[in-house]
Amino acid sequence: MLRLEGVFPALVTPFTDSGEEIDEARLRRLVDYTVESGVNGLVPCGTTGECQNLTLEERKRVVEYVVDQANGKVPVIAGTGHSSTNAAVELTRHAKDVGADAALVVTPYYHKPTDRGIYEHYRVLADKVDLPIVLYNIPQATGVNLSWQMVEDLVEIPNILGLKDSSGEIKYILTVIEKTGSRLSILCGHDEVVLPALAAGASGMILASANFIPDIWLRLYRRFKENMAEAQKIQTSIQKICRIIVKSGPVGAKAALNMMNIKVGPVRLPLSVGGELSYEDFEELRIELERVGKIERRALAPEIAVRGGASEFAVKDMVPVEGPEIRVGEGLAGDGAEVAHVEVIIGLKDGPVGEAFVKAKATPSAGHEPLIAILEPNLAVKPTTLIIPTVTIKSMRQASIIYGPAQAAVAKAVVDSVAEGLIPERSVESLIIMVNVFIHPSAVDRRRVYINNYKAVRHAIRRALEGRPTIEELLENKERAKHPFKYSP
Asked: What predicted TM-score, i.e. pTM, was given to this entire model?
C-alpha cells in the first residue's frame, strides 16, 4: 500500500528560457535535487506544475520524465485531473502505464459541476483505471468546493486513498477526518497552515514551496512528532515565504528556484512576474531566501570611489575603481492609491550626487520642495538623505502624507539598510542619498503609505548596491505608478 506521509513537492514544470518547450534536463535536475533532499514523494503536473497551461501530450511527457528520473527511489503521484472526465481517464491511464504510483485528481472545473457530476467524475475514473487516487480540493482555483459530505461518499470507492486539501480551512480537514477516520490520508496543500493541519490529523503535505525548501519542511515534519514548540518556530520562520508562494503559486516557486540557480525557466502566460508575483513580493522572497540560507547576498556592485584615493565605501574583496561613481535603484511596493514607486541615487558628498543635493536644496521647484529625512525631531539619518516628491504638491493633505508617513518610511529604510550592513556604517558620513518619492494625490491610508514606501526604499537601496538598478519591465512599472487603479487587483 502506498503510504501518504511526509513531504511531497508539488513540482514546477521547467521550461526552456523562451517558455515554449519543456526542458527535460532541467526537470531531471529538479527531481534529483528534491529526492536528494529526502522528500517522501513527488507530485508532477499539479497546480504548481501549470497543468492547465500544458497540452495533454506535454503532461504525459512530464510524468514520464519524473517517473524515469525518480527510478523508484520515491513514489510519484501524477497530476491527472482535468475538467473533462474522458481526458482525466486518458491521463490517469497513461500515468499507470508509465509507472506512476498514484494519481492526484483535482475536482472538474470551469463548468462547475454539481455534486452528482463530481461523484460520477471520480467514480468513472476509479472504475476505468486501477490506480490509487488522491482527491484534490482547491476551490480558490477551480471555483468548485469538494464538500466533506462528498468526500464521505467518495471514500467508499476502494482505490480512493487520499485527499489533498489546499483550501486552507482547518475546520474542513477536521470534519473530513471525523467523517472518514483512518480510511483516508489527508495531505495539506496550503503552505501557510501546514503545522495546524498536521496537528489536526493530516499525515503530510504537498507543497509548492517544497520545491526549494524541502529540507525545512522535512525538519518541521520531524519536529512536529518530537517537539511541537520547535515545529512552531520553524513554521513561523518561513511564514512570509509561505504567504508569498500561496499567493503566487508556480510564479513564486519558479522565481525562488531560479534565484537559487536551479534553473527552471519562466512561467507561461497568462502567469507572470509582476502579476501573480508582484515586484514587491519578488524582492521580499529574495530577502527571505537569503535569510534562510538558500541564496547568498548578491555581491555589491563596484564600490563608490573617493576622488583621488581609496574609498571609504570599500567592500571586502572589491577592487577600487577610478573616479566618482553613482548608484541608482528603483523600488515598487503596494497597489491602489497607496502604491509606492521610488528611485534612489547614492553617491559621494564630494561628487555629482553631492552637487545635485546642494542644488536641490538651494533652488527647489514649487510643489516639489525637498526634505531631509529625519528619524525623529532634530535627528537626521546617516547617510544624509534627501526626499524629493515626484508629484506636484497642491494641498496640505498631500503635504502631510509626503512629509509625514512617507518621510518616516524613507528614514527608517535608510537606517535599517545601515543596521543590516547593506550600507557599511563606516561610509555613512561620506555618502549622500537622494530619493524621488511618488505619492498618488488620492492616497489616504497613512499606514499603507508608510509600509509601502519603507519596502520600496529598502528594495531600491539593495538594487542600487547590488547592481540591479531597475525592476523588470521598467516601462510597465512606471505606468503602474502613474495609474495605480488600472493595475489594482
From this structure: 0.82
